């Protein structure tokens, strides 16, 4: 016996195509709708057995809020999430919101139908390979990319970091040179290298970028290099 379904996706063409395919297989499709933003209200009103809810960004905060509301007001409705290959965070977020399963957008119609029937029966409907991949990534997480401040900081030498901090403090070339015990010409060269590496055209832009990305906070926690030069002597 076919299930009573709703298909909701931001891409109306996808929703209608999937709805048509499911109708041909004997299921009763109550609605094929877009956008997904209005899914909760529509599902609560129509009360299908299973709702297929499409998303393009399963890890985005708040994306599964409609699922939370549906399960709160219509707990008997099974929600199947349709989406791209998910990250472990995406799968976890879907199930934490109350979803009964997760089906990839590129799944064959037979696979979608199997997930529908499992969800209607109260079973978790998620492909074993998706769970395996999620557990593998959770147990062996890949290194996360550094944030922008850390990335910029890694481009600078310790001496250039000190120059940038002094620039942000408002020091001119003479004060930078005196404070670091280097010649003004050397200080000017350091400043130019810092601007070039940060991709900015002025000291003011460099200071603003460093403050906005948190680079200054990170740099402030680093020890400043010991200056082995007298305050008036040239750098060697």
From TrEMBL:
<dbReference type="InterPro" id="IPR000792">
    <property type="entry name" value="Tscrpt_reg_LuxR_C"/>
</dbReference>
<feature type="domain" description="Response regulatory">
    <location>
        <begin position="4"/>
        <end position="120"/>
    </location>
</feature>
<dbReference type="GO" id="GO:0006355">
    <property type="term" value="P:regulation of DNA-templated transcription"/>
</dbReference>
<dbReference type="GO" id="GO:0003677">
    <property type="term" value="F:DNA binding"/>
</dbReference>
<dbReference type="InterPro" id="IPR011006">
    <property type="entry name" value="CheY-like_superfamily"/>
</dbReference>
<dbReference type="InterPro" id="IPR016032">
    <property type="entry name" value="Sig_transdc_resp-reg_C-effctor"/>
</dbReference>
<dbReference type="GO" id="GO:0000160">
    <property type="term" value="P:phosphorelay signal transduction system"/>
</dbReference>
<protein>
    <submittedName>
        <fullName>Helix-turn-helix transcriptional regulator</fullName>
    </submittedName>
</protein>
<keyword id="KW-0804">Transcription</keyword>
<dbReference type="InterPro" id="IPR001789">
    <property type="entry name" value="Sig_transdc_resp-reg_receiver"/>
</dbReference>
<dbReference type="Pfam" id="PF00196">
    <property type="entry name" value="GerE"/>
</dbReference>
<dbReference type="Pfam" id="PF00072">
    <property type="entry name" value="Response_reg"/>
</dbReference>
<feature type="domain" description="HTH luxR-type">
    <location>
        <begin position="149"/>
        <end position="214"/>
    </location>
</feature>
<keyword id="KW-0238">DNA-binding</keyword>
<keyword id="KW-0805">Transcription regulation</keyword>
């Amino acid at each position: 016996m076919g299930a009573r379904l709703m298909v909701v996706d931001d891409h109306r063409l996808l929703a209608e195509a999937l709805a048509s395919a499911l109708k041909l297989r004997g299921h009763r499709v109550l609605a094929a709708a877009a956008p997904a933003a209005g899914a909760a209200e529509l599902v609560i009103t129509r009360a299908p057995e299973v709702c297929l809810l499409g998303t393009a960004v399963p890890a985005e905060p708040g994306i599964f809020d409609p699922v939370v509301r549906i399960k709160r007001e219509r707990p008997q409705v099974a929600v199947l999430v349709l989406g791209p290959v998910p990250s472990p965070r995406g799968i976890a977020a879907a199930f934490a919101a109350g979803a009964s399963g997760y089906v990839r957008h590129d799944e064959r119609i037979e696979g979608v139908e199997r997930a529908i029937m499992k969800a209607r029966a109260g079973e978790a409907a998620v492909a074993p390979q998706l769970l395996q991949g999620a557990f593998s990534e959770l147990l062996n997480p890949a290194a996360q990319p550094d944030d922008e401040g850390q990335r910029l900081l890694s481009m600078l030498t310790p001496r250039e970091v000190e120059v940038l901090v002094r620039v942000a403090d408002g020091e001119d070339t003479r004060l930078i040179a005196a404070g670091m015990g280097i010649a003004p010409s050397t200080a000017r060269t350091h400043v130019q290298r810092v601007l070039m590496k940060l991709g900015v055209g002025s000291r003011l832009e460099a200071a603003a970028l460093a403050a906005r990305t948190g680079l200054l906070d990170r740099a402030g926690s680093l020890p400043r290099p010991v200056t082995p030069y007298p305050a008036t002597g040239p750098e060697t």
